[in-house]
Amino acid sequence: MNLQNHMKRSTLFFTISLFLVWGCRPQQPVAVDAYNYPIVKHDTFQHAAVSSAHPLASEVGRYILEQGGTAMDAAIAVQYALAVVYPNAGNIGGGGFMVVHTKEGQSYTIDFREKAPGSAHRDMYLDSLGNADLSKSQNGHLASGVPGSVAGMELAYNKFGTMDFKKLIQPAIDLAEKGFTITEREAKGLNRMKTDFVKYNTQTPAFVKEQPWQDKDTLIQSDLAETLKRIQQHGSKGFYEGETARLIVEEMKRGGGIISEQDLKDYVAQERKPIVFDYKGYEIITMGLPSSGGLVIQQMMEMIKPYPIEQYGFQSKEAINLMVEVERRAYADRTEYMGDPDFVDVPVAKLVDTMYVRSRMADFTPLQASRSEHIKAGLVKEKEETTHFSIIDKDGNMVSLTTTINGAYGSRVVVGGAGFILNNEMDDFSAKPGVPNKFGLLGTEANSIAPGKRMLSAMSPTIVKKDGKPYAVVGTPGGSTIITSVFQTLVNLLDFDMSAYDAVNKPKFHHQWMPDLIYIEKDFDPQARKEVEALGYVFKERENIGRTEVLLVRDGKIEAVGDNRGDDSVAGW
Ligand code: DON
């Protein structure tokens, strides 16, 4: 080799090495700017990415990842940040589920779902005539289960945390203490909720002000900042004991709620066995009971497996017919059998047994609508709020986390002096067999109320691997529609080979057995609707379905998407 060539080679070598060293290391992490931030819907990142419901929460995640934090570190920071910047669903007063897949190839799930208080009982929402009074399970102090988020984050931290916990919660404290500018959507949400905040609170929360909120107003939450500092100082004891616990119990007493000091002390988050199954060579990792999400998704994917859905095409009448019929059957099973496995015997093995699942489709005739039993119920129109985020780090650790206070702004009760909203998760129990809850969902004994029991959920945080490598992180809010949204997103990605952007943003449909309707978003293809109506299905338009956060790894890059249906936003490096 002549000298010139040698020089060229060594320069090239040097450049490549420099690129590798620099390429694996972020530039100096840029701190989060709480007063000036864009909403980023779609981007591609080389190393690590976050998609969440709020730009500032995604930015907090990016900041942690850039400092060398893992996906799990970032998840804890994002969960706390959402509790500040996204009060309609982000929370410390609610609960959720976290699915983790480590770079070593292990899968874990953490259940931090709320629990019924110790003095809750089966008929607590029935009036003297035995009728269910859902206003009590949906709003105000009696609607809250014992919150699980703080215990869940502690369990996750003890198991996976690598950075100092104090640093992970600090961005949330700053956002609460110094404030941040709210988005137009948030301003509208807070204005819409003003009457309820006034009605259900004994002390005026930070969310209520004289003049209507406007885009880019600053929201400061001093009480919440103090609560977060107690958690920073004492871990979960800073929430379930001491001052915060005292404030929660006092709030309960003022408003006729039943969460006691003992209930708070007794709360534990739990590690659960993940649901893992194969779908056409992809490994799907998702959440088991007390969320019904994973089981129902597994049932539905098993049921569609024998059919060449990829040939039918996206939202063709054949594909919609097949997907609706599997949704109908799986949701019927959900209603009948599923509940908290610590309290009821759920025949899990049977429900996902291939023979059983396939036998459920024995009465399926392609291109024909079957019928659910007729009952008078429907999806309540009110906006639902839960929130999901997806994270991948530079080493391939992945976190899929869905968390909720159930309805938008939960029970609307803000703990006086502690500054956070309590959930209205008790409505996810079946208040009375045959009486649909907020999401039109029915339940039986399996999901009846009992002290310390967890209410059945639909939350479906999910991770997908392909050839043993990270492929996708998926999840969404949306009440009963969560499961079908995750199902559709997976089919869009795995069968229709769509981009993450299309998989998230194309219109969605939903069937939940009862009521016997196909719910669709307003921009659903009218031609597809007409063709499927001709098969005997009844359609109903509704508000947006879900707000799905997807990260997709293709060709060594992460495609990150925040749903166009909200302020959802992505970040990464
Ligand atoms: O756990 C559940 O299934 C419900 N509490 C979720 C509520 C929800 O997704 C509302 N959000 N859009």
Helix-strand blueprint:
Blueprint: H1 3-23, E1 42-45, E2 49-52, H2 55-66, H3 71-85, E3 95-101, E4 107-111, H4 134-138, H5 149-160, H6 165-178, E5 180-181, H7 184-192, H8 194-200, E6 218-219, H9 222-234, H10 237-240, H11 242-255, H12 261-266, E7 270-272, E8 275-279, E9 282-286, H13 293-304, H14 309-312, H15 317-337, H16 348-351, H17 354-359, E10 384-392, E11 398-407, E12 462-466, E13 469-474, H18 481-494, H19 500-505, E14 509-510, E15 518-521, H20 526-533, E16 539-542, E17 549-554, E18 557-562, E19 569-572
Parallel strand pairs: 15-16
Antiparallel strand pairs: 1-18, 2-10, 2-19, 3-4, 3-11, 4-7, 5-6, 8-9, 9-12, 10-11, 12-13, 13-17, 14-15, 17-18
Give an account of the 3D structure.
The protein has 573 residues and is an alpha+beta fold. The chain has one domain. The protein has helices at 3-23, 55-66, 71-85, 134-138, 149-160, 165-178, 184-192, 194-200, 222-234, 237-240, 242-255, 261-266, 293-304, 309-312, 317-337, 348-351, 354-359, 481-494, 500-505, 526-533, and strands at 42-45, 49-52, 95-101, 107-111, 180-181, 218-219, 270-272, 275-279, 282-286, 384-392, 398-407, 462-466, 469-474, 509-510, 518-521, 539-542, 549-554, 557-562, 569-572. Helix 2 (55-66) runs antiparallel to helix 3 (71-85). The chain starts with a helix and ends with a strand. The model is unreliable at 1-23 and 374-382 (pLDDT under 50). 6-diazenyl-5-OXO-L-norleucine (DON) binds next to strand 10 and strand 11. This enzyme consists of two polypeptide chains, which are synthesized in precursor form from a single polypeptide. Its EC number is 2.3.2.2, 3.4.19.13.
